[in-house]
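haha ok so turns out i had the wrong file open the whole time. this is the CORRECT one, sorry everyone. sequence first:
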Amino acid sequence: MKIGIITPAKKHSRNGNRATALRWAGMLRDHGHSVRIDEVYDGRPCDLMIAIHAWRSAGSISRYREQAPAGPLIVALGGTDVNTFLKTDPVPTRRSMAMADALICLHGLIKDALPSTLHEKLHLIRQSARPLTRPRHPRSRYYGVCVVGHLRDEKDPFRTALAARLVPAQSRLRVHHLGKAHDHEWAREAAREMAQNPRYHWIGEVAKWRVRREFERTHLMVISSNQEGGANVVSEAIAAGVPIIASDIDGNVGLLGKGYRGYYPVGDERALAALLWRGETDTRFLPSLQRQCDKLCPLFTPESESRALARVVKAASRAVTRSN
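then structure:
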């Protein structure tokens, strides 16, 4: 088939939506399809469209549906679709979901937040990552913790820095934060935090290889977001064998499981500081988290993601055939 993928993320962006579009395009080409990626739908005919983000791609979704009333349409839900726009701007978000023949969610708890009328066409795809090509050797000079995420509200980006201020004075903790500032004010805030907090170092936006090198050297990763649709960085850390400490939001619990032992209450830097200190001083804690992550590894392989994507494409095509 000729498949169009619509993503609101710009061509050279390192945004997660762009990364997802590129990864899915490669998988679909491996399945024998022809794939084109655009930021907006320009009316060019295609046999099936995948729109990433119901709210941000709402205009493209409506244009496609007008041009191809019976064309298969898949909408991949973003975290802000479910956590923000269903509440703040529900009309275009619900319209996009209703138009879709199949919906993709990226973690296992999104179903609980959606109207029951949408459950039948909801499909879970866990984003994948490849393992490191070299063994991990965490830093020996200090206790390294990484945060991989852009500086914007949804990521609660300075929570780990605030927690680092609260660990005991004898701690050897150092936080390395990799991610782009959403605007100049976020960059200024990161600079102020570094000036006041010697445990915190903001590195900025980096290439994929730099994140993987950090995974080779860090002791653990913190994902501190106050909302997520199913962050790919969790998959990447699991594949790399990096223990994870995570805020207890649905987007993290839906990937790591309800029994995972590395959660802290979202927004609570004191609880996070206690977990960071435990990771540094309790020799059993980080290995126990890593064992839990290792058990999840088979769920996050490229092969598993590719098979799941193929199933959704078939399901959307079958849905159109039945309706006709």
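The mean pLDDT is 94.
again sry for the mixup
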